[in-house]
Amino acid sequence: MTMGLGLAACASPKPALTNLPTPAPVAKPVFTAEQAKALATSECLACHGPVSTPYYPTLRGMSAEEIALALRNFKSGTKTGRVMPQIVKTMSEEQIAKVAAYLGGQSG
């Protein structure tokens, strides 16, 4: 019979957790134009220079929209490659848009 008492004690309802503070929303870090310029300069323009090569086409003359579409296509796998899918896979949509805007604004 004492065994039943032990089980009854375990089956008792747990007290409700009340008055817990609501966690503050976590702000998404902002990707600035300066960060976009630094990323484009270090990652993109390091390979995609002013002259096209068979492996690294130039980005000169491409609009921001064309660059953003190409980056999104690499990220989704619609467009394949050896290097670009690895570079763009961790980029956020904000990063893609701002890097493309920076690169598309470069003079051809």
What would your notes on this structure say?
- The protein is an all-alpha fold.
- It has one domain (32-108): Cytochrome Bc1 Complex, Chain D, domain 2.
- 47% of the residues lie in helices and 0% in strands.
- The chain has 5 helices and no strands.
- Helix 2 packs across helix 5 and helix 3 packs antiparallel against helix 5 (93-104).
- It is elongated, with a radius of gyration of 26 Å.
Summarize this structure briefly:
The protein is mainly α. The protein has five helices and no strands. The protein has helices spanning 2-10, 33-44, 64-76, 84-88, 93-104.
Low-confidence stretches: none
Could you tell me the number of beta strands? 0
Roughly how many Å apart are the termini? 89 Å
**Biggest sheet overview:** none
Topology-level CATH name: Cytochrome Bc1 Complex, Chain D, domain 2
Give the CATH superfamily.
Cytochrome c-like domain
Q: Globular, elongated, flat, extended or rod-shaped: what is the shape?
A: elongated
Radius of gyration (CA) equals 26 Å
Q: Give the helix tally.
A: 5
- Indicate the CATH architecture: Orthogonal Bundle
What is the percent of helical residues?
A: 40-55%
Class by alpha and beta content: mainly alpha
The whole-number mean of residue pLDDT values reads 85
